From TrEMBL:
This is TauD/TfdA family dioxygenase. Coiled coil: none annotated. Belongs to the TfdA dioxygenase family. GO terms for molecular function: dioxygenase activity.
């Protein structure tokens, strides 16, 4: 396995086949995900069966209610611009953060790559934390953000909101990340009034997603990209897309620590 770091986050990984993996290789990839945030695996011309086996190597799969499943693969989510008259909308976010235990990992498999555009953007939330001013950092220590659901229909009794620490220590690296999601899904900040909370959330979001803190992944046929939701936000860039863009997405529940960690 050969790992090539990217900037300001992420790494390309060669020598991995997207399919069921031995536990030793899963542990290696978990540690790489925790360190780099995003792993890009090129040339993975695999089907949904192999993609699902790969994801299950990391743990139980999670599906967000209200999303569109892949035909014949109910654990996978269809992400596509096909059949749409207007481009999809996307803002930087963390997947399903409105539950107490959000998914640890998300992965996308490129099914159809557009002729132009359609990149996926990732923010380095370790670096976002590390570059906060000392004054703001001290004010936010110990505070939580209430994450709420938007845009999907849920059943009665389903989780709709959860409080998460603004600063989250990664269980593998021990590094601290700035943990938030798109501002529309950040309802409040503990200990702050509504107006101050909105200002703080807006500042943290802009701080996290400034251009020098973002990796823009240009998709190629056969790409599989996996990321760690505990230290990364992401969004799809739907501006200027020419051609069909179809991805199959899978998410993995919070996983046990690799042995030896």
């Amino acid at each position: 396995m050969r790992v090539t770091p990217l900037k300001p986050l992420g790494a390309t990984v060669d020598g991995v086949t997207v399919d069921e993996l031995p536990r030793r290789r899963v542990r290696e990839l978990q540690c790489l995900l925790a360190e780099h945030g995003v792993l890009v695996m090129r040339g993975q011309h695999v089907d949904d069966e192999a993609f699902t086996r790969f994801l299950r190597s990391f743990g139980d799969l999670v599906f967000t209610k209200g999303e569109t499943p892949v035909d014949g693969h109910p654990d996978l989510n269809l992400v596509t611009n096909v059949g749409r008259t207007t481009p999809p909308r996307s803002s930087f976010h963390v997947d399903t953060s409105y539950v107490r235990k959000p998914p640890a990992y998300t992965a996308l498999r490129a099914v159809e790559v557009p002729e132009r555009g359609g990149r996926t953007l990732f923010s380095n939330q370790y670096r976002a934390h590390d570059t906060l001013s000392d004054e703001l950092w001290r004010d936010l220590v110990g505070r939580c953000i209430e994450h709420v659901v938007t845009g999907v229909e849920l059943d009665a009794g389903d989780e709709r909101s959860a409080r998460h620490p603004v600063f989250r220590d990664h269980p593998i690296t021990g590094r601290t990340s700035l943990y938030l999601t798109t501002p529309d899904r950040c309802a409040s900040v503990s200990g702050l009034g509504e107006r101050q909370a909105r200002a703080v959330i807006h500042y943290l979001f802009e701080h996290s997603t400034r251009p020098d803190n973002v990796l823009a992944h240009k998709w190629a046929p056969g790409d599989v990209v996996m990321w760690d939701n505990r230290c990364v936000m992401h969004r799809a860039d739907h501006s200027g897309v020419v051609g069909r863009r179809t991805m199959h997405r899978g998410m993995v529940a919070e996983a046990a620590l690799p042995r030896g960690q």
